[in-house]
Amino acid sequence: MPDGSSNTAGRTVLTYGTFDLFHIGHLRLIERLAAMGDRLIVGVSTDEFNAGKGKRSVVSYDDRAAIVAAIKGVDLVVPEESWDQKRKDVVAHEVDVLVMGDDWTGKFDDLKDVCEVTYLPRTAGVSSTEIKQLLSALDPRHLEEMSQAVSTLTNLLEHYRDLT
Ligand code: C2G
Hints:
By secondary structure, the protein is an alpha/beta fold. The chain has 6 helices and 5 strands; from the N terminus they run βαβααβαββαα. The radius of gyration is 22 Å and the shape is elongated. [cytidine-5'-phosphate] glycerylphosphoric acid ester (C2G) is lined by residues 16-20, 25-26, 29, 45, 80, 100-101, 103, 122-123, 126-128.
């Protein structure tokens, strides 16, 4: 239970996430969480729960959970299957502090009666969404469109050069 001391001994830390296309932002968060206590539990969103969030992961739940479980400092991975499981998880695992990236600031303050709740600055300049957008730009259909656009521009340029 929360005691407000800065001593991390015996403290259980909990967080949740999709962790799709695992990147440095995810790693930096997990490293900071591991330093906040001596037991770190990570709830990884299931594919079904993500569908409910309007998200479709590139990497399956089983693989995302296996990757997170292999990260140094992670003691337990649990499936995140609903928004309201957090309160049950906090009580069941005797969690001292729930921590999320600051894109969730304030969203889980309602849990402050059962544990500390805090938000950490995100790592700037990287997100799974951006990586997905980049990958989709490399989609063959897009590449075909781009090469057609380039050849149209090239023809126009040559035509213009002939006129001048
Ligand atoms: N994160 C970060 N820096 C980034 C990207 C993400 O610190 N550049 C943090 C997020 O703030 C979040 C965690 O990494 O705390 C996981 O991010 P996502 O995989 O995007 O998780 P999300 O879809 O936001 O799921 O119930 C809560 C949800 O499960 C959170």
